[in-house]
Amino acid sequence: MGDVLAGLVDAAAFTVVVPEPRSGALVPEVAAPALAACEQCGARIEWRRTVRGHWIMIEPGTLRAAVVPAGSRWRVAGDGTVAGPASAAPSDTCRVRHVDVCAAHPEPVGSPVLLALWRGHARRFAVHGDARA
After folding, report:
1. Could you tell me if 28 and 91 are in contact, meaning their C-beta atoms sit under 8 angstroms apart?
2. In whole angstroms, what is the distance from residue 42 CA to residue 45 CA?
3. In 3D, which of 40, 11, 35, 26 has the Cα closest to residue 122?
4. Handedness of CA 61, 80, 93, 109 (dihedral sign)
5. Other Cβ atoms within 10 Å of 99 Cβ, number
6. What's the whole-number average pLDDT of the chain?
7. Of 50, 17, 19, which is closest to residue 36 (Cα–Cα)?
8. Hey, which residues does 46 pair with through a beta bridge?
9. Could you give the CA distance from residue 39 to residue 28 in angstroms, rounded to a whole number?
10. For strand 44-49 and strand 34-37, is the pairing parallel, antiparallel, or unpaired?
């Protein structure tokens, strides 16, 4: 848990999002990353564009790569796009997709760090009620 807390950066700002024409999903209006709330669990997320031009929800803040499973590590490039899952040295930092720790999904198995993030979202989800209703 200490590794999770030490690696997270709490973000407080939110931005306006608009529906993406093709999918109907909410995405940022601008090309830069934008903070918003997950429609399913209410957790704060960052919308980031992938290197292939798709938008995905990323958890705010970075984690030490050594505590995140290799298949869950995402990297932010200099231009703000994300690529993943990425290989990283244990001393590097990485990001995690929100869908891997969303409280509206089943809890992650096999990673104490992802489970700790999921439980944090689940506590807020339980307090504020089912955001999907």
Report:
1. no
2. 9
3. 40
4. positive
5. 15
6. 77
7. 17
8. 35, 58
9. 14
10. antiparallel
Look-up: residue for tokens 């109907």?
24
Structure tokens that stand for 73 in this block: 């590590």
Residues 34 and 127: their CA atoms lie apart, in Å, by: 25
Contacts of 133 by beta carbon, 8 Å cutoff, 6+ apart: none
Q: Look up residue 60 and give its DSSP letter.
A: S
Rounded CA separation 88/65 (Å) = 6
Which whole-number Å values give the CA distances from 120 to 53, 84, 117, in the listed order? 30, 24, 5
pLDDT tens for 64-85 read 999 999 889 999 888 888 988 8
d(CA 76, CA 84): 9
What is the CA 125 to chain-centroid distance, rounded?
16
**pLDDT value at 109 more than 50:** yes
Give Dmax (Cα) for the chain. 41
* pLDDT band, very low/low/confident/very high, at 57 (cuts 50, 70, 90): very high
